[in-house]
């Protein structure tokens, strides 16, 4: 299977996982304020540091730059599926990082998507506080998790993903 097809399939898997975790809780109020909507989207898109969010009367505007189309799709889909959102304006720009070949970026993007999907699938890890970045097969985990055990678990799960050469686990424990 070629890298583009695999990255595309992994992107769909990652988007599906994000959408599942983006569904509102049962009994959640149907009408949310713009600040509540922005906070909810911001919490879901925590790993996407370069995506800006503004909300006015339920209209969400996404901006910023992401390294590939998969990130853009996840951000837009997440925003569209948040309770209280009436529509989404997508102003996100896709631009690869400088000095990275398209093949390397596709490999790193596929690894990042696989690591995120793996972390989302695991019960003992809260993905919302974790940012995943991959460069030349080296996965860097940053952010804050509930405790040291979650940080260790996240690193272990990431290291088991196909294509990962090394994990640089910089996760901090809240407790």
Summarize the structure.
Helix content is 43%, strand content 24%. The protein is an alpha/beta fold and 175 residues long.
Structure write-up:
The chain has 175 residues and is α/β, with parallel strands linked by helices. It starts with a helix and ends with a strand. It contains five helices and seven strands. Strand 1 and strand 2 form a beta hairpin. Helix 1 packs parallel to helix 3 and helix 1 runs parallel beside helix 4. 43% of the residues lie in helices and 24% in strands. Strands 1, 2, 3 and 4 form a four-stranded mixed β-sheet that branches. Strands 5-6-7 form a three-stranded mixed β-sheet. About 3% of the residues have low confidence.
Which features characterize this protein?
3-stranded mixed β-sheet, 175 residues, 4-stranded mixed β-sheet, globular, 5 helices, alpha/beta
How is this fold's topology laid out?
Layout (H helix, E strand, L loop, with lengths): L2 H20 L11 H11 L6 E6 L2 E8 L2 H12 L6 E4 L2 E2 L7 H20 L8 E6 L2 E8 L2 H12 L6 E8 L2
Parallel strand pairs: 2-3, 2-4, 6-7
Antiparallel strand pairs: 1-2, 5-6
Helix pairs in contact: 1-3, 1-4
- Proportion of strand residues: 15-25%
SSE topology string: HHEEHEEHEEHE
Give the number of helices. 5
Main sheet properties: 4 strands, mixed
Low-confidence stretches: 25-29
Tell me the structural class. Answer: alpha/beta
Radius of gyration: 16 Å
Residue share in helix:
40-55%
Basic shape: globular
Give the overall pLDDT as a whole number. 79
Give the number of DSSP strands.
Answer: 7
Distance between the termini: 43 Å
């Amino acid at each position: 299977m070629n890298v583009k097809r695999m990255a595309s399939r992994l992107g769909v898997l990652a988007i599906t996982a994000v959408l599942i975790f983006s569904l509102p809780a049962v009994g959640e109020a149907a009408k949310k304020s713009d600040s509540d909507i922005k906070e909810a989207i911001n919490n879901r898109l925590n790993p996407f540091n370069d995506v800006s969010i503004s909300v006015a009367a339920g209209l969400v505007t996404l901006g910023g730059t992401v390294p590939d189309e998969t990130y853009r799709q996840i951000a837009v889909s997440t925003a569209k599926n948040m309770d209280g959102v009436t529509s989404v304006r997508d102003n996100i720009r896709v631009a690869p990082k400088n000095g990275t070949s398209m093949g390397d970026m596709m490999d790193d993007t596929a690894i990042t998507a696989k690591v995120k999907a793996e972390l989302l699938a695991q019960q003992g890890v809260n993905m919302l506080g974790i940012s995943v970045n991959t460069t030349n097969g080296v996965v860097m985990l940053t952010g804050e998790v509930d405790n040291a055990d979650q940080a260790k678990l996240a690193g272990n799960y990431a290291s088991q993903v196909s294509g990962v050469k090394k994990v640089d686990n910089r996760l901090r424990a809240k407790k």
